Amino acid sequence: MLDAGTNYSNINAGRYNIEGGTVIFSGIANIDGGNKIDFHNIPGGQLVIGSTSLSDLSGDSLNVENFVYGDQIKIASSTSYSDDTLSTAVSGDDLLIQSTVDGKTTTVVTIKGYATSSAANVEPAPTVTYSDGYILFGEQSDTGACFLAGSMVRTPQGSVAVENIQAGTDIFVYDWKSNTETTQQVTWAGQAFTVVNSSLPDDEAGYPVRILKDALADGTPYKDMLVTAEHCLFFNGRFVPARMLVNGASIFYDKSITSYPYYHVETAEHAVTSVDGVLTESYLDTGNRRSFRQNSKVVQLHSKTRTWEEDAAAPLGVDVDFVKPLFDNFKNRARHVAGSQTPAAPGTLTTDPNLHLVTQTGAVIRPVRCANQHYSFMLPPGTRSVQIVSRASRPANVIGPFVDDRRQLGVAVADIQLVTARQHATPITAHLQPNKPAGWHNTGWAECAWTNGNATLPLDAQTEHNDIAMLSITLQATGSYPLAAEVQENVQRHSA
Known about the structure:
Elements: E1 2-3, E2 7-8, E3 15-17, E4 22-25, E5 36-38, E6 46-49, H1 54-58, E7 61-65, E8 72-76, E9 86-91, E10 94-101, E11 104-112, E12 128-131, E13 134-137, E14 147-148, E15 152-155, E16 158-161, E17 170-175, E18 180-195, H2 202-205, E19 209-211, E20 225-227, E21 232-235, E22 238-241, E23 251-253, E24 259-267, E25 272-275, E26 278-281, E27 293-294, H3 308-311, H4 320-333, E28 349-350, E29 356-359, E30 364-365, E31 369-371, E32 374-379, E33 385-389, H5 395-398, E34 412-420, E35 423-427, E36 449-450, E37 454-458, E38 469-477, E39 481-482, H6 484-495
Parallel strand pairs: 1-3, 2-4, 3-5, 4-6, 5-7, 6-8, 7-11
Antiparallel strand pairs: 8-13, 9-10, 10-11, 12-13, 14-24, 15-16, 17-18, 17-25, 18-24, 18-27, 19-20, 19-23, 21-22, 25-26, 28-39, 29-30, 29-33, 31-32, 32-38, 33-37, 34-35, 34-36, 34-38
């Protein structure tokens, strides 16, 4: 019996346990068809199978047990598929993942015993899609902007729990331009399920945001409100994502909730609605509708994907000047809100980027000189590329969630010069090109580019003579970086 958390290759075992974790196989041929892959009815499990071809897949099968919604099977495929060519079909007790191209349907992979498993009764039924080189069966969804169960939607018949809203229900909507209230009919109500990925930052992990009663104003919301991080609230003519208002006291990520169903309510036109006494948004289909099960027996036909720029009921308000006053107001009133949490103490920050290089062999190169943002490094002969490595941080973490920048930023690199014994200084500009190497952010700036803390710098053409070389890097800017993880690492090292 082998458990999740390991990368397996050419191992025969009676059973593989995936209890909310991940098991990785190098290829589907490494799995004996007689073996059991058991998800243990726990959402969040993932089976990853790499390096497969169509011939590999069509000749093999997976014997899966206790697969539930929130679990996922991820199969690398050298053949590309569009989502509308992939489907599922039941054959006896087996589930077939199929592809239809030019009218011909081919079984891509067989999941043995699926029809007799608990997964066969799961609602919504798992989908099969193709993305970034993988066939994906089952949902590990991006929750987007959604409500949790118990959110009360204001309707002419009174407040109705979001999970009970169906297509055809009339709900109140607010026309902020004319300051009037009207009704719109719900055209679609969707439901899905998500499992938190605690390895990601809180705002990306899937934790719901809890907005305590009275957190926004007296009586607003009139009870605790639970929404996903990207769900928008309406203030002064703009929509603001809930994640940008998290203060850790009256508005916080509820980490006691690690898996949950979530719900969307769509109106004919994107609208400002009232839920739990808070002005918020109806669903805007920006491309993730197929991840949801419809809460209605009537099948609705849907229009093309919409955009915030063209179809939103109000513009997004994510600039600091607009959001920070709201954030400060809610943070200041938090001490008067019942049930407010004690925010975590801010971590220790440093402005030292700890800039260094790592060669393709793993050698660490420290600067031989550093002054006024100019760093010089001595490269050994034969260096074909280096990683520019530094501390990194997200502005939304070190400045505040009211900053809509969640990139990992290392250092902003401007000028790079390479000097060898055979030639004068040669400028290196790979980081300034439109198609940047791995680890560089596309900021649109012509004079510099930010790393993510570990950025590739190719040097092949400049070091072909195997000379010792000096690499000079000029930084345009650095950031503030958390020290907490490094301090903990040092404590563990010294206590070992």
